[in-house]
Write a structure and sequence with these properties.
There is one protein chain. This protein has 10 helices and 11 strands. With 257 residues, the protein is of the alpha/beta class. It has one domain. The strands form 4 sheets. The protein has a 5-stranded mixed beta sheet, with helices on both faces. Residues 6-223 form the DUF4422 domain.
Length: 257
């Protein structure tokens, strides 16, 4: 029997979507929207955390799929970020079903190419960009609830690279294991910092999505999960001048505390 593949395409607005049937347009934060997008799956059906979207970002789609998708292979991409071996901003060039099957016959999980920081670690990069208290609490929670993962956590936070965007494609067994582990940790962190998060700006309120970007590699490392890297193509034009300015601001001390 051919395994069913579903790649959720997380979106908070109605935009053109890939026509390939494996790609599932997914409206994240649907519980907070007066409009339901035509042709999209809404993340507020069945068991869900859709109302937490301002804090968990695309993770509300991942949680939804854990309990409501019947696919044997599940992945997540973004409406403006897709896996592709082409540099062309063309939905016809993104990973197709046959390529995904071929890649998963070689390794267990498909992840984005590493983002390299070169002059700083994953931990210092986070602390320059976000509120460090969340990272402190994250480590405390792992040490308490998942102590077997603490060595892998410390190792990965010391690296000068990470697999970002909460993007991946993996078989159901691995998916269930990862999602259960991930939310066990994030919900515990949420309990400890939610009173602080209330006063943060809208960008920093997305803290659990930012933290989870640091956790995929921890889970892969600890469980000896093999993976293959695929480039990510950005469908929208990138403002590199703005990005560069924000990077320099963080480096000279105007980052988060």
């Amino acid at each position: 029997m051919v395994e069913k593949i579903q790649i959720l395409v997380a979106a908070h607005k109605q935009v053109p979507m890939p026509t390939q049937s494996i790609y599932v347009p997914t409206q994240v934060g649907a519980a907070l929207s007066a409009e339901h997008f035509d042709g999209f799956v809404q993340d507020n059906t069945g068991r869900n955390i859709s109302s937490k979207n301002p804090y968990f970002n695309e993770l509300t789609a991942l949680y939804w799929a854990r309990y409501n998708s019947d696919a044997e292979v599940i992945g997540l991409v973004h409406y403006r970020r897709f896996f592709s071996f082409s540099r062309q901003k063309n939905s016809a060039k993104i990973l197709d079903e046959s390529t995904i099957r071929a890649l998963l016959s070689q390794k267990s999980v498909i992840v984005p190419k590493k983002r390299r920081y070169w002059i700083e670690s994953s931990e210092s990069h986070y602390r320059h960009a976000h509120h460090g208290v969340a990272l402190d609490v994250l480590r405390e929670v792992i040490a308490t609830k998942q102590p077997d993962y603490l060595t892998a956590y410390d190792y990965n936070m010391a690296q000068t690279w990470a697999h970002m965007f909460n993007m991946f494609i993996m078989p159901r067994a691995e998916y269930n294991d990862y999602i259960d582990w991930l939310f066990d940790i994030l919900f515990a962190v949420e309990q400890k910092i939610q009173s602080d998060v209330v006063d943060w700006d809208a960008y920093e309120k997305r803290v659990y999505g930012f933290l989870s970007e640091r956790l995929l590699d921890v889970w892969l490392e600890k469980n000896h999960i093999s993976y293959i890297e695929v480039p990510v193509v950005f469908m929208e034009k990138q403002n590199w001048l703005l990005k560069g300015g924000k990077f320099l601001a963080r480096k000279i001390g105007f980052g988060r505390v």
